[in-house]
Structure prediction request, 905 residues.
Amino acid sequence: MKNIYPTLVLLIAFLAPFSALKADPIKVASVEGITEYHLTNGLKVLLFPDPSKQTITVNITYLVGSKHENYGETGMAHLLEHMVFKGTPGHPDLKAEITNRGNRWNGTTWYDRTNYFETVPASSENLEWALEMEADRMVNSFISKEDLESEMTVVRNEFEAGENSPYSVLLDRIFSTAYLWHNYGKSTIGARTDIENAPIERLQAFYKQYYQPDNAVLIVTGRIDEDETLGLVEKYFGAIPKPQRTVPDFYTLDPTQDGERSVTLRRIGNTQLTGVAYHLSSGVHEDFAGIDIINHVLSNNPSGRLYQSLIDTEMATRVMGFNNQLMDPGLAIFAVEAMKEKDIHEIKDIMLSTIDEIALNPPTDEEIERARNYYIGNIDQALNTSEWICLMLSEWIGMGDWRMFFIHRDRLQNITAEQVAGVAKYYFKPSNRTVGVFEPIDKTDHVEIPETPDIAELVSSYKGKEAIAAGESFDPSVDNIENRTTRLELSNGMKLALLPKKTRGESLRISFTLLNGDEHSLLGKREISQMTASMLMRGTKNLTREEIQDRINELKSSMYVSGTRYYVAGSIETTRSNYKEVMVLLEDILKNPSFPDEEFEKLKTEMITNIEYQRNEPGAIASMELSRHMSPYPEDDVRYVPTFDESVQRIKDLSIEDLKDFHKSFYGASHATCAMVGDFDLEESRKLIDDLFVSWESPVSFSAVKNLAPDVELMNKNFETPEKANAFFFGRQQFKFDPEHKDHPSLVMGFYLLGEGFSSRLVKRIREQEGLSYGVGGSFEAHPIDKLATFNAYAIYAPENRDKLEKAFREEIQKVVTEGFSDEEVEEGIKSWLEMRKVNERAQDQFVVRRLSLYMEWGRDLFWDKKLEEDVSKLTADDVNRSMKKYLDLNKIHMAKAGDFAKSE
Prediction:
């Protein structure tokens, strides 16, 4: 463990004589396995032991967000979130230290709260480190002027990235028009001028005001011992005194809206958008269960009323809906996207009339049950993962109390059709909305938003339901996973990898692939292959698209199927009691797609709309141009990268018969794989898969289509994207390479140190030192089938910083080649990389199931990973530097940059 920062050491020494007078953490409430404690300094602590996890998640939520910002301070809560990662006297290089623990970590800011979290491999040492670190930066973060100067440009770049999206900007305008006074009308990212000019003194004062134990809730979940954890919390957080200041009370609320409001946004683009927002109650009000139901009834795809009135009629290409569930009264938002040639005003009128009708024609029992199944299914899945619950509870803490999550669930479970109808009639009125036009009315019809309920009264006697089954304590080592995994091959050639274990909530995950065709049989079928896979869940000979989704929700499961080139891939999350029926549904989806004409036309329109949207997007343009340059294959080759125009025309030229023929000619299970990890019976599952798929043989042979890394002229090009505030940079080097080569471990580590994680050279130089980019980094992969290694680098930045960014990128690449990495860098990098592998590769079921599935295709098992990790652990700086000098070549890195460079010049 690192030495505790000096302030805390002195404080503990001072308080030691009085330790006997300090009260132990007070147990306040316990609901469904989560227990709340209070410390004498005001800190609230939630503990959620989960022995089935191999990790521990620490999440601290501060009751401060953009709602608490004053004039000239917009974006300050978010800016402070960035600054708190800059370190403390006890943790001067905090990002590197966090990264070296190999954990998943981040911070997020929203209207009512800010949170910081880290997931670490389960151990007493890691738990103590995380708690000591969070206690340290609660009160001892640097928040220095020097750090603000570099981080301000990073945050400004993040602001610019949001400005690229017409959808995001339109929502910002709707919010600011809907709210006259409340800070919910201001974007969390803040105003550009406030980001650029925030005085360090005000930022420091903001930090000291809100980052205190009496304004925070600490959550610890995963494989923890409750007594040990409480002891550590008391040791580190309990030593921080309760502050003398009083947190200000924010009391501003908007008046009742007395008429429809409007806003218009005009920017360059290839698609159109319209949206509408309705004022709502506080997120903890009993009406919000009905509001959630109504939003689903209106916006769900494909059963929603907006979908049916706008997508089924081919007026629009996408409908969206969500509720801002917050401490103070929030908004219900609906948005519609359409092609440029459509009449957006007619679409807006249809959208509004469809929503208006909800009051006259309230949701049916079937619609309510569908929405209830959707929400309760999502909640049940979340409760199966303690890490996810740990993060989700931040939203409810921001609303006032974590127990409201369970109360809201119960309200959803028990709501009646009459209650839903009442909510629909009350809130969804023309006088309560903000849209794109203004229309005078003769008679007012106001909505009085109810007061926020007394939360203490609501939660005081709440007990919740019976806690979910906890699952087993599972060792995520390679040896244990391999010893408990059974691999089989069915008589038709289908391969299985089955890992049964007891899990929280009896959950399990399934990953499957269908491998189809080869380089020659797939000629001219690039779009056909992709479209066929995309149509699978849009209807079978037995079920409509809507019925498929309803069935998945009824089974409290999730299923995703996609495909490209030569494969179809899918993932399922379900439970022991439901997985048989889910697998039967999967069989129907894969074997018996009906390819309905109306769904085919919808899909074509959606895909074309997406392409049109990308025409002006810097990231899409730079990526496409770079890939086209480095993949000079014939136009009928599945590896060919088409232009936007070509993609649109190819989609338009497809017929439904093309898809039916492709399915008949290519689909089968002879070259399929299926991996299962979780709570299931081994023999029962093997027999089930055999019964469902063994007789389904593939009509054609399979051979993986390999990327060949053709020799092409070096590329370094700029592409203009007018009026886009954020630019993109992509760099790529490819070379023939077999991952079985002895240099592979040293390349893995070298490229990790160059571009991955917050301690990498590219991040430290381009983001941390020069503040040029919010998002920058790189990745490396050596593909075992292609025998091809690829190094990718990326960055987002302001267009005027293009030359500075490229210069910094080139210099850092050249330093690696000529000077290499230090012994300390390599030593810390190895430690960080190994810890990351423990957390990301084997401690999470979703990663394990994907790895088992992928390795069946590659002919590997997880002992390959073990060997790689052993080889990496033995590396020296000389090993890494020798390989990087041998393979990394600045003169072979292709570059593509897209942005509004003409305007910046």
DSSP finds 34 helices and 23 strands in the chain. The radius of gyration is 28 Å. Confidence is low (pLDDT under 50) at residues 1-21, 437-442. The chain has four domains: 6-164+175-236, 261-444, 478-693, 718-904.
